[in-house]
Fold this protein.
Amino acid sequence: MTGVGTADHQPIEVQVLGAATRLTLDPSVAGALHPTLALAAQRARQPEADPAWEELRAVAAAPGGGGTLPLPLFALEREDGTRLASGDSMTLLNGLLADVEARAAAREGASVVVRAGCVRIGDRRVVLTGWGAPGVTTVLLALGRRGHVLETDSQLFLAVGGLSAVTRRFLVRRHAVDVLDWLDPVLAATPWLQNRAGETVHTVDPTAFGMDWEAGRGPVDAVVELEGNHGGSNRLRPRSRWEAVRALADRARDPAGGPGGSPAQWLGQLCSVVDRAQCLRLTVGDADGAATLLEEALSQDPAAPTGMHGRIFGSVHQIDQGG
């Protein structure tokens, strides 16, 4: 189930780094499909991309499958009639995203996809991973509100030279307003869907919040693993590189449409990415406070012997914030 959106016969354009798709909806299905498939569109700046466009179309499909609910209802096809997906609107959305991801991964030479977020704090590129309440997305949005450049909240390609951001709309669960109350008026006009658990999940284009959203590639300067501590203190502590590699490796998967690979094929590449990065663990009591703590720490000159950064890696080894 999806919500917020109107029928539109204009093509939907999706771009992930160098892979771009222009999706045309048949007028007979536009009213039913546009609110869902438009969730794949985004307005992230992708300045280094040289997009290779692919033309797809969504059409009605002949019922099949038998039973009381004949399926499929719709089909996603290439120009030559090759079918990519068939079924309901969510099946087509997932098929569209998987197709773009597979093409983007091939162009990037990506070995795996890592479930993690990325933000640029000043001139430092920072990867956030881990789950909790609040989690990666809410901390990223709190950083975006402070003027830092958001890259992704969910997926990074492990590619030659580092990590490449997969630009998809951010997924924000409705209960995020409990920890970021300023989200409430904006989410009211933001498209949403229901996941399998019945939760309302908003699909957020950060530019709709007035935030900077831009894809990035290459090395990272810090890897931060988050853990939830709802209502408690925010704490920032050092982590070993081994722990940071393990946290990212635990959240790695093969790219859509790509051959499965063993960790031995990409673990060394991941170690190389983490080797030059500061590695931290952030305990999140509240998203805004955790974002402030991270911002203050990572805005410092890494070589500085004093200040917030010095306190993290000097004799204190921990910063507490809050009660």
